[in-house]
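Take a specimen:
=====
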Amino acid sequence: MTRETPQELFDKGFISEDQFKRIDVITSGKVISVFYELRTVLYLGVMLFTTGAGLLIYQNIGNLGHIVSITLLALLMFVAFWYVVKHEMGYSHSRVQSPTPYYDYVLLLGCLLFISIQGYLQFQYGALYEHLGWSTLITAAFFFYAAYRFDHLGVLSLAITALASFWSITISPQKWYSGEFFTSSDLHNTALVFSVVVGAITFFLDYKSIKTHFTFTYLNFCVLIFFVGAVVGLFMETWWLMYILLIYAGCFFAWYMARQKKSFLFLLYAFLAGYYATTYLLAETVFEAEPMLWFYYSILSCGGFIYFVIRYKNFFKKAA
């Protein structure tokens, strides 16, 4: 829509004078929306509050007392969830509008406080060492319930993160405790399996029309985790060719989803992952025989990336 569009529609009789006045103040810039700016400020406020509460307790732990600190956090968490339950609109497979302007932020605050209490118990008392996996799984299940029950994308992200943590912890809890987890675990292959399984569940839920607006968030996590796992495997395993094929398969999937979802982000994932795989493949084959080709490849690839960003950054907006 251009600045002259409302006037053209009014002249042709497609909109009334009252509608023209409402639209004209927006297109002319006299009235602007600060919706996303306010949401950002509120989300930052929740994050800063929970972070500040944690730092305050940590720095004054001797003065406040452990029981008092946990009690205050728990009380605030229960108040947040009480507010959420009191104002809830009920579950629906489709998107549910927030009943109050602060509803989403209060729910996020309650979930973050839930994590803070868990961390506090673990840090101070070591209460979860023997059952760290189950604790993480229960947290993931609770966040999934809250995300679907109260329709919150932020809590869904916390749930997916907690579920991914559970998968990694259950590989070898003893190595997790001893600090040798990342040096000797098979985490990159676990990431590949995790992303494929969660992606399959996502498509099933989308097919059943259950919270279809959650699909993008699921796929974003799955694509990222898949590519990270495949790239790590590429550098760690001797059978690197298999990981290159996996990356190319992931690139095709990301490209397909980019077209389906009209998302440049998935296209960018495909481009970067494909670039890593192709560079590694050339380094192990062509560049071994002709090292000077590295120079030309570097120049051409940098130019190709710039062209890609300029060419496709607004491609889907124009197509839509």
Observations:
- Residues 186-320 form one domain.
